[in-house]
Amino acid sequence: MALGVALIGTGFMGKCHAMAWRNVATVFGGTPPRLQVLADAADAGAMAAQFGFQSGTDDWQAAVDDPAVDVVSITTPNALHRPMADAALRAGKHVWLEKPMSLTLADAQAMADLATAHPGQVTLLGYNYLRSPAFQAARDLIASGAIGRPRAFRGVYDEDYSADPDLPWSWRMTHAGGGLGALGDLGCHLVSVMIALMGPVAEVTALTDIAVPQRPSPDGPRQVENEDSALALIRFASGAQGSFATSRVAHGRKCRLQWEVHGSEGSLVFDQEHMNALWVHRAGEAGFTRHLTGPDQPDFAAFCPAPGHNFGFNEQKVVECRDLIRAIGGGTPCGPGFAEGLAIETIIHAMAASDGRAIRLEELAHEDA
Amino acid sequence: MALGVALIGTGFMGKCHAMAWRNVATVFGGTPPRLQVLADAADAGAMAAQFGFQSGTDDWQAAVDDPAVDVVSITTPNALHRPMADAALRAGKHVWLEKPMSLTLADAQAMADLATAHPGQVTLLGYNYLRSPAFQAARDLIASGAIGRPRAFRGVYDEDYSADPDLPWSWRMTHAGGGLGALGDLGCHLVSVMIALMGPVAEVTALTDIAVPQRPSPDGPRQVENEDSALALIRFASGAQGSFATSRVAHGRKCRLQWEVHGSEGSLVFDQEHMNALWVHRAGEAGFTRHLTGPDQPDFAAFCPAPGHNFGFNEQKVVECRDLIRAIGGGTPCGPGFAEGLAIETIIHAMAASDGRAIRLEELAHEDA
Amino acid sequence: MALGVALIGTGFMGKCHAMAWRNVATVFGGTPPRLQVLADAADAGAMAAQFGFQSGTDDWQAAVDDPAVDVVSITTPNALHRPMADAALRAGKHVWLEKPMSLTLADAQAMADLATAHPGQVTLLGYNYLRSPAFQAARDLIASGAIGRPRAFRGVYDEDYSADPDLPWSWRMTHAGGGLGALGDLGCHLVSVMIALMGPVAEVTALTDIAVPQRPSPDGPRQVENEDSALALIRFASGAQGSFATSRVAHGRKCRLQWEVHGSEGSLVFDQEHMNALWVHRAGEAGFTRHLTGPDQPDFAAFCPAPGHNFGFNEQKVVECRDLIRAIGGGTPCGPGFAEGLAIETIIHAMAASDGRAIRLEELAHEDA
Amino acid sequence: MALGVALIGTGFMGKCHAMAWRNVATVFGGTPPRLQVLADAADAGAMAAQFGFQSGTDDWQAAVDDPAVDVVSITTPNALHRPMADAALRAGKHVWLEKPMSLTLADAQAMADLATAHPGQVTLLGYNYLRSPAFQAARDLIASGAIGRPRAFRGVYDEDYSADPDLPWSWRMTHAGGGLGALGDLGCHLVSVMIALMGPVAEVTALTDIAVPQRPSPDGPRQVENEDSALALIRFASGAQGSFATSRVAHGRKCRLQWEVHGSEGSLVFDQEHMNALWVHRAGEAGFTRHLTGPDQPDFAAFCPAPGHNFGFNEQKVVECRDLIRAIGGGTPCGPGFAEGLAIETIIHAMAASDGRAIRLEELAHEDA
């Protein structure tokens, strides 16, 4: 039977979810979902028509409560994540939520607890970059032992959307409005990738920086509260070590989610700005091999049988949507759900709080308890 | 009022058309098309359900004739292009046809003539690579004079799908079954790009090669009839010159549609294997600048507001679909239609026939007349 | 016993020869050559001191005739090549000459004939790019069959030293003063590489262009006589085919000597602008492997035991010098000597004369005879 | 008057110094140095002949004391650096020493003190990578304000010379024999680059790892004592922050000295494996521009007038040699001398000792005092 879908939000990620819901069955087969209702503060009817939803509403609670709705896509600003996700879980719905879960770790904890209390409902967080064919191929290569034991990780996620010092102040730059800064926008993505490749984190030591402490506003200069950039050292539970860096003020970087894994028998290198190339080196080979995405990698073939033809950002979301549908259908578990999301956000909050002090993650878990 | 769509074929390009039809309004707005009927030789009902079409049929003629159908997407093997396109035009329908138009130039001519005889119906050929944001940005840069007068073109389109000498013989390797070889599969794409950037071609001189003259078949070795690769010198009507090369036996190349334009005041360089980077050099600058696709380029923003996040192959087709809808709606002309397609195919057939002899395109046109 | 060296010219290539002579024994061992005399039209004494030659003279004939001189390095403008090389050969000296041999094919023929008449004297032409470790590795890979039978060649050599339309007219742009244009400066290098990788050329068909027909001079605009760019189709004696392009007006290109070889079992790709990377693909591998230069490649280890540390342009000349010394010492033959140089120049002159007509090289040889 | 040179050592760096001494005047003009004496434990006479030195000796002290010697090049294993440098300084000679200065910080301190006590003698350490045209251009761009105020640094220096777990144990892997591990071999180079671009370091927090704790030896497995890799967070005195990583066990990396600087108005990116490209982005530009080395950059033109022709690793040393000669000649100061070298080594020793604890450099200086 077709899955009934409610979508809340029609911005960058709202449209991306809509495209995914519309194409998931076309790409992967199975019963196409029923696009039941779209909720947004304004123009919901027009957007519902554009996105192919049966109806639009400005009452998100009504959309969540609609008995024809099985799953809720939440793509609103971070401050609204908790009330909407809570409502959806309480209404018995599956939840597909954009990251980060919430503005504060306490909220994330409460959300994870609520999800745990509804074990029959699937939660999935929008960590897009886990779904690209190149990333999935990298994860599989490591799992297969192709590069031996992972010894070291180096990762950055840099963009430049706040690099201009004249960019006006916004509520997103406050703790109350935006939560964390670069760590919340970008850093959590890098953490999601890092732990998927390297396993759990045992300890972090981090520095943060506000590169532009004051920004112009109509009321004169105002203070930026959350970090423009962060750097961290990582000890993994496996004993491996890693370096970690993220910035929203790195001029010229657009989606520089770049990482490498050094294993005992090879290395992998990737850069999301060219998300269709995975660089692989195995001990004894003459150098790194550029592996373009293609049908020999996970999930690529469903989109295109021809290698080197380029997978796109939005298509990652179709894979994510397929994983969600499979999990709802009783099959394969998918993640990161809220529990794993809490682990990711615990790490970025530890980084934000570290100020050069080593923080052991298990102690933090105990403190929280 | 919603446009009624029939789709014929569910392979690589059939699915790609389906995704485009499903998402074009989500991405660009406007009334979503009505996915009326899907035709395929087998499993048409199941595929219609998967692709979200209202019905499926194994009778393509019926789909074309369906009065609720306004436009027909034709994605079948090349030998079927002419009968289907002819039928659709005669039934008063708009036609969206994958390239090349047909196996022979005579067929292409007849199709173009028929399209001319139905001036109120739009024809559009699936030259995907004309729709990527980087390509469109390149074309706009040249049109704006950013690199001065184009003096020279260098272009290749290489893949390796037939590189393995042990790849079995197939009917696609015959004139009767496949028409041209690399020129028909790949070369016509490169011609489409070349003339969009450089203007009309005046003369070509070409060599072709069959790198693997015989291939295994159940009946023993059989002859390959169409070219594995072709090389050409180009004289453009503008006086500029170009080099042109295409191969289906270039080991390691997956979608190497690589070109550069040398202008009197700068240069552009592009490679479809990294379709999200356009390299721009203007006289006086220190080197080439890598311009990642982003919302400052045509059509990117409708898919994603964030630069560097990667446009995908299939999304080119959504842009193409939007152009088709705009043209049908009475607005902007779009191309290449059948007349322009004939010009492209005239060029590749001239290359196939040249054997080192210079062929002037206008003479060819006269001969044809 | 130490080889006595005369060097004529102290410009770009003069200094490069001097560095090579000074370092060849340091790098490769053997008896250091004796830097006997440096000849230049002006400042010969000062330059001799700077370059470490025992004496300087403004009389190149005297340098050539000096009985202590065994070998003459000729690095003067092309119009002087023939008289100097002839004099050196007639004086019984070995000759190391920068390319091209001369302004006209007739001169090149005469020089080759004279060299043939002095079989005991080594001639070597300065085709630097044949001596880089990456190129040598490529040639060895092909020879070893690593990529199977070479089926196709694609090569360009583009620079932008004349790209600016306001660049003043110079005598180098005339037939009498400069001989060929881009073909003489750049194209001959590309031919040298092409035939070393692919074997002899059977036929060429070429176009040439003068992108900037008139250039400013103190006497008003003057005509440019030799080509700014050339394009060619190549038939190799082996049956393989190739495309060939060269330009001195390609904005942004600095030393874009880029080629690829498609073999029946793999491909090689190289770009002199990153001369320390050779890209290798063998059938069945996931993509191209970037092989950085290192001690596993020919001649690198003598300069540096550490891979990835970058070989430089000037160091190519040290390898060339070592090859010359070995040949003089009675050992390994080295090339291209004057006979091979004539073959190279026959090809570029055929390209210059082709104007779209196929020219068979053996016929040309017969015409010459 | 010509500078008298003694060279101690004929390995990787000994040959590199020899090439530099031989070519420095050829490249940059000035009086060629007099290559007086070469010292090595074995074959000194033969190596002196090969390298063009007047004599060879197995008595390095005699070479240092030779009254015809003005400057001593020391290229021996690290444990010999201090006695040789001390002897040279005490004998009144200038000293050109390969990095690091010594095995222990105490030795480095003593060497710096001795150099301070001989103010008329120049000391220079072999931090090659400071001399490449691309690096010098980067430093000049930052100094000129081209990218505004440097806000952040990311740097790695990875190689794979110890990546193979089966590589036998060696004395270089002990504190007594090799001093530090990756930090001493590679990390100090990265520090030299980092402080040249970003200014002084205020605080470091680091982790180190021994990826392969035991290695085979004829006597059975033996313990590796010094670090295979290190990671650090950096606080610069300017307030900027940086991340730092180095490894000798990074499979596939050959000379991956890769760094980027994020400024308030632009960014620079560099990778020593392609040392001829500097990537520059200024706010407002469409992306990063690849600036190939060329005569518009410092010191390139003296080697080659043609851009894009590739500077080599060994040529960095010729620039270093020129700087040394200029400093000795009473002119421009050059560095890093022993005092600056001590600062660099203080940083790597602080990293080695940190174990996750923040170490303020000025406190360390006080502790030392």
From TrEMBL, chains A, B, C, D:
<dbReference type="InterPro" id="IPR055170">
    <property type="entry name" value="GFO_IDH_MocA-like_dom"/>
</dbReference>
<dbReference type="InterPro" id="IPR050463">
    <property type="entry name" value="Gfo/Idh/MocA_oxidrdct_glycsds"/>
</dbReference>
<protein>
    <submittedName>
        <fullName>Gfo/Idh/MocA family protein</fullName>
    </submittedName>
</protein>
<dbReference type="Pfam" id="PF01408">
    <property type="entry name" value="GFO_IDH_MocA"/>
</dbReference>
<dbReference type="InterPro" id="IPR000683">
    <property type="entry name" value="Gfo/Idh/MocA-like_OxRdtase_N"/>
</dbReference>
<dbReference type="Pfam" id="PF22725">
    <property type="entry name" value="GFO_IDH_MocA_C3"/>
</dbReference>
<feature type="domain" description="GFO/IDH/MocA-like oxidoreductase">
    <location>
        <begin position="135"/>
        <end position="269"/>
    </location>
</feature>
<keyword id="KW-0560">Oxidoreductase</keyword>
<feature type="domain" description="Gfo/Idh/MocA-like oxidoreductase N-terminal">
    <location>
        <begin position="4"/>
        <end position="122"/>
    </location>
</feature>
<dbReference type="InterPro" id="IPR036291">
    <property type="entry name" value="NAD(P)-bd_dom_sf"/>
</dbReference>
